[in-house]
């Protein structure tokens, strides 16, 4: 196996764009809005732009409805073709989360990594698939089977995971061990029950804290791109209040940019990769890992 690419020499600055959107029923309108956001970020100097999870439609997994499989498409396919043209026009790499139709009856929650020429450089299929009220993803998606690819895009070695993956330290660690210096998390998360402001704040804090911990533990930048606005599928009595607040954390876990909770936004953020080197020298977690002691990590639970 080839050694991971160690990345550029200390001091390289990568300008990253985040597109936080409200989604409507019209898939083409959502695609057009995403394209406008990418173009806006590119005009402001972004070289690498990330969209939110399943950006083409309202979040489909709030109930189990077979007709929603019609939203799926191949990857590469129509969405990557449209986004590829935008990537090539602006010279910007794109991370795009899509409902992938792999074969009849086989679907994945997939992130396509498009390079600056518009080509699909790699795909990441979501590894961890939730099955919770209003997040019935196991009905729609098979678990990912492509591993965690690391690609050089926009001037940085990057990896993508998706939403529920952001709660698992193993995925972030594997991405970092593969050489990634920026981790992207396209996301669709919010409050699905009216349980009060205190619990709402605690849930959001846990989400942000978890991802900041990935940045710290691995000495990488973390970019989380969430939806905003309330979505309630046709005929449903309840929905999800997506909490927005897309953000970027630096390798020390500091939040260096954050979008509003309830507004659409396009953020453009400078990520100085020299901080990866500096932070890992000061806190050398990769050096001090006891890989000889971690055999039980591959077990579901350690039963004595």
Textual characterization of the structure:
It contains 6 helices and 17 strands. It has 304 residues and is an alpha+beta fold. It has a single domain (13-288), classed as Nitrilase/N-carbamoyl-D-aminoacid amidohydrolase (4-Layer Sandwich), CATH 3.60.110.10. The strands form 4 sheets. The chain has a 6-stranded mixed beta sheet with strand order 5-4-3-2-1-17. Helix 1 (27-43) runs parallel beside helix 2 (78-90). The mean pLDDT is 94.
Q: What layout of secondary structure does this protein have?
A:
Layout: E1 13-20, H1 27-43, E2 48-51, H2 78-90, E3 93-103, E4 106-114, E5 120-125, E6 131-132, E7 135-136, E8 150-153, E9 156-160, H3 169-177, E10 182-186, E11 190-191, H4 197-218, E12 221-225, E13 228-231, E14 240-243, E15 247-249, E16 255-258, E17 265-272, H5 274-282, H6 285-288
Parallel strand pairs: 1-2, 2-3, 9-10, 10-12
Antiparallel strand pairs: 1-17, 3-4, 4-5, 6-7, 8-9, 11-14, 12-15, 13-14, 15-16
Helix pairs in contact: 1-2
Shape: globular
Main sheet: which strands, in order across? 5-4-3-2-1-17
Oligomer category: single chain
Looking at the overall shape, the CATH architecture is 4-Layer Sandwich
End-to-end Cα distance? 34 Å
Q: Total helix count? A: 6
Would you identify the regions where 5 or more consecutive residues have pLDDT less than 50? none
CATH superfamily: Carbon-nitrogen hydrolase
Largest sheet, in brief, is:
6 strands, mixed
The CATH topology corresponds to Nitrilase/N-carbamoyl-D-aminoacid amidohydrolase
- Proportion of residues in extended strands: 25-35%
Q: Give the SSE order as H and E letters.
A: EHEHEEEEEEEHEEHEEEEEEHH
Give the count of structural domains.
Answer: 1
- Can you tell me the CATH class? Alpha Beta
Helix content range:
10-25%
Cα Rg? 18 Å
Give me the count of strands.
17
């Amino acid at each position: 196996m080839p050694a991971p690419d160690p990345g550029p020499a200390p001091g390289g600055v990568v300008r990253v764009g985040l597109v936080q959107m409200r989604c409507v029923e019209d898939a083409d309108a959502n695609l057009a809005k995403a394209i406008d956001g990418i173009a806006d970020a590119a005009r402001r100097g972004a070289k690498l732009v990330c969209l939110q999870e399943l950006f083409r439609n309202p979040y489909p997994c709030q109930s189990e409805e077979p007709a929603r499989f019609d939203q799926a498409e191949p990857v590469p396919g129509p969405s990557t073709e449209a986004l590829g043209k935008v990537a090539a026009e602006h010279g910007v790499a794109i991370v795009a989360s899509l409902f992938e139709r792999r074969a009849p009856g086989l679907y994945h929650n997939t992130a396509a990594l498009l390079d600056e020429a518009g080509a699909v450089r790699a795909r990441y299929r979501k590894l961890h698939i939730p099955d919770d009220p209003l997040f019935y993803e196991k009905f729609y998606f098979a678990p990912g089977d492509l591993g965690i690819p690391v690609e050089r895009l926009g001037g940085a070695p990057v990896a993508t995971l998706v939403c529920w993956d952001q709660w698992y330290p193993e995925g972030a660690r594997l991405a970092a061990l593969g050489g990634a210096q920026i981790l992207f998390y396209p996301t669709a998360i919010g409050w699905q029950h009216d349980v009060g402001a205190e619990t709402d704040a605690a849930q959001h804090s846990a989400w942000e804290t978890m991802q900041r911990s990935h940045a710290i533990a691995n000495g990488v930048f973390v970019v989380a791109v969430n939806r905003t606005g309330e979505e309630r599928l046709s005929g449903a009595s309840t929905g999800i209040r997506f909490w927005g607040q897309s953000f970027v954390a630096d390798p020390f876990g500091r939040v260096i940019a954050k979008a509003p909770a309830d507004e659409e936004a396009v953020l453009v953020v400078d990520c100085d990769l020299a901080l990866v080197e500096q932070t890992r020298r000061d806190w050398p977690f990769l050096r001090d890992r006891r890989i000889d002691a971690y055999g039980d990590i591959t077990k579901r639970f350690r039963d004595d």
